[in-house]
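Re-run with default settings, no changes from the original entry. Doing this only to confirm the output is reproducible before filing.
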Amino acid sequence: MSDRIYIDSYAYVGKRGPKDVEAQYETEVLLDEMEWAGIHGAFITHSTAKEYDPMYGNRMLTRELKKSPRLYGVWAVMPHQTGEFPRPGELIKELRDNNIKAVRMCPRSHRFPFHVDFCGELLGALEEEGILLMVEGGHLYVNDVLETTNQVLVNELDAVLTRFPRLNVLLQGGRWDATRFIYALMAKHRNLYVELSAHQGNRAMEVFSDWFGAGRVLFGTGALEKSPGAAKSFVDYCTLDEEEKASVAGLTIAKLARLDALPSAYRASKRGDPILALAKEGKPLKDILVIDSHAHLMHRDAGGTGFIHIPYGDDKGIVERAKLVGMDAACISGFLAVWTDYEEGNKIVHDAMKHYPRFYHGYAALQPQYVKDWPRELRKVHVTYGMEGIKAYNPRTYLPYNDKLWEPWYEYGNRMNAYALIHPSPNVVPEMMDIAPRYPNISFIMAHSGGSFKDARLAIEIALKNPNVYLEITLTAVTYRVIEFMVNHVGADRVLFGTDQPMRDPIPQFGWMVYSHCTFEEKKKMLGLNMKKIIRRVKK
C-alpha cells in the first residue's frame, strides 16, 4: 500500500440546518470514516461558525479539535468594522494562541461585501502573516448567489487577489460547469489553489495539474455531506505520477498551513473487503464485473460543448478512462441526442458501438415533438443501430413521463424487454406509478437516485411498489451513506452503479460506491451483476 499521506482540506463538523434525518455531522463519525478511507488528517470548520455566528462556532470547534490530533481547525472570520468581530491584530493573536492554521470567509452567509474597501484590513493582515484563506464558490451567475457553497463570485475573488497578490487562497466547492471561470482566475493569480470535491470534471485532476501544476490542486472531500472515498479515489486512480499525487494528497496543504509535522499513518487494519483493498491501492478491479448504467458520449475528438468544458469525452477517451478502475462496459446516450438533435446524437452513439462493440451499450434518445414516423424511428434505433435502452428525457422535452406522446416508444420497449433511464421530473412519482405497472417488461432505471436522501426516498417509494424499477446512484453530490440507505430499503439487487460520465469523471462515482459500507456481495451486484441481468433480458 502507498505510504502517501492524505490531508482533507475541506470538511465540516457540527449540527447544521436544514438537515436530513439521515445526514451525518458528528466529529466521531468523521474520524471513523477517515480511518476507513485512509485519510490521515482533516481541516475542519464548525457548521455553527458558518450558519450562526463565526466566533461562537469557532469556540465550539475548539472542543471538537481536542478529540483527535488528526484534526486541524479552520476558523470562520469576518471584518471588524461593525463591532461583531475582533480587529485583525487581535484576531491574529487568537489564531496563534489556538494553533489555528487556516481561516474561512463566508460573505454570503454572513452578509458582508467581499471587496477590498470593507475586507481590506483583514485580508492584508492574513497576507502579511501568511495565513491560508479558504473560500467557497467561484461561480458567476446571479441564480447561484444564495447557494451555500457559492460564498464568493468570480469578479469579487479576482479583485481581492489582484489587490493582495501574496495572499494564499484555496477555492472550494467549485463545480464542473465553472471550469472556464476557475481557469481564468488561476491563470491570472498564482497564489490561488483549487480543490475538486464538488467539481469532479472529467480528468479534472490531470487537466488542472497540466494547466497549473499539481502543486496548486489540493485534496478535499466536502465531508460529511459528501463521501470521502469519492474524493480519495479521484487521487488514487488518476494518472499523475507519485510525486504529483503526494503533493495533491497532503504535502501542499501541509506547506500552505505550515504544519509542524504530517499526521501519522494508520496501523494495518483488516476492515473492508477485496474491492475496497484494491481501491485503496488505486488498482483496477479484477474478476469483478463493472458496468456503468448511466453514461453519455461526446462526438469524436470533442473538447467539450459550448457551455461545458468536457475533455476526453468521446468514445476512445471514455474507454481509456474505464481501464483505470476495471470498468467492463458502459450504457451510453449521446449528449447531443438528449440535449438538441436526437438524430445526430444517436449516430454518434451508434458509431461508438461499432468501434467498441464489447464495451458500449446504447440508449436511444427520441424527442416526440420531432418524431413524424414512429415505426421508422424505432426500427432505426433499436434494430438497425441495435440500441437496447430508452432515454426518455423530461429535462429537455418538458414532457411528463406518462404523456401520451411517449406511448409508442414504451409499447415497443415493453415488447423487447428494454431498459429505460428516467431522470427526475417535477412529478416523477405519480408519473412512474402510472407507467411502471403498465409496461412491466421495461426495466425502469431511476437516474440520480443518490443525489440526496430526498431523491432516494422518492425513488424508493416508486421501487417498493414496482418490481421493474431500479435505483441508479450518480450525481456530483456523492451523498455520504445514501447508497447504504437505498440498499437497506430496496436491497442491493435493485441498486445500480452509474457515473454520468464524461460530464463527471467516473472515478469519484466509482469511489463513492466502493468505499460504501455495503458488503462485498452487495457491491458486486451493484457494480455490474444487476445491470448484466437487465441487459440480458432485452430481446434482440
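The two ends are 45 Å apart (CA to CA). The chain has a mean pLDDT of 96.
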